[in-house]
Amino acid sequence: MLQSPVKQIAAIQDLSGYGRTSLSVVIPILSTMGVKVCPLPTAVLSSHSRFKGYHFTDLTDQMQSIIDHWRQLGVAFDAVYSGFLGSHKQICIVRQLIDTFTNENQLVVVDPVLGDNGTLYAPFNEKMVSGMRSLIQKANVITPNLTEMFLLLDKPFHADAGEDEIKREILQLSESGPDIVVVTSVPDQAHGDGDHYSVIAYNKNDSRYWKVPIDYIPAEFPGTGDCFTSVLTGSLMQGDSLPIALDRAVHFVSYGVRATYGYNYDPKQGILLERVLNRLNFPMPVSSYEVF
After folding, report:
1. What are the tens digits of pLDDT across the range 176-197?
2. Cα 225 to Cα 22, 68, 113, 152, distances in angstroms
3. How far apart are CA 5 and CA 21, in angstroms?
4. Is the separation of the CB atoms in 201 and 179 below 8 Å?
5. Backbone angles phi and psi of 256, in degrees to 5
6. Which domain does 15 fall in, by range?
7. Which of 24, 170, 255, 285 has its CA 20 to 30 A from that of 71?
8. What is the CATH number of the domain that holds 32?
9. C-beta separation of 227 from 252 below 8 A
10. How far apart (Å, rounded) are the C-alpha atoms in residues 93 and 6?
11. Is 1 inside any structural domain?
């Protein structure tokens, strides 16, 4: 078996040549945090899908051959991390990868990308949702947004869910398999103005809930969810506690959005990652997490 002097992770996502999303943020963030990334591209795109006319090459039929070669080489992974998956077949491949490379202390992180703002993404259907429900059963950590939380539970979406309901839904998701459930983009009902959001998490290993408020900036940058989950994953691999990992991820994304927002810049390109990567090696700011 090939041993690495640094921790290494299999990252299964698409790769866009233009626009900061998926592997183009996963690789630099985790590398900066001292983790060696072994990418398994699910597709190669000229740009991510928010740019019109993008060129797309599906790599589904190549993925198993890559996995088989890794297995022949005796590669070992400290973690497996999946993000956007384009089809039910890709979900099945990721399940097999987890089974092939499983080890006792392995971290498995699944970002179950399915939809947002109360709706399923256009390319997906119920078969995709069902497949994702099976995949999260193999994960230690999942990071759905509020819409994805309801989809995974097969419940109707409602943005005005109160804190007690959110906690019950998170607990139900955790009972399906993952030790840690992190729900992003949760509206803060205490303010009720649509401008305040939080990340809410539950760790069934100690039965505690955590909440981290999110600074609101009136802008939307693709790839911020990928940045969040990547920093969270890197922090957990460095040995941080869950609340500190949440804090680091929220602060990094918030700082990246603030650093980018002031420029005359097309937001579809994503945050100016190169301006903020070094923040990952700075001392932690004052923690903002709350016991929830």
Report:
1. 999 999 999 898 866 556 667 8
2. 9, 30, 10, 18
3. 28
4. no
5. -65, -40
6. 8-291
7. 24
8. 3.40.1190.20
9. yes
10. 26
11. no
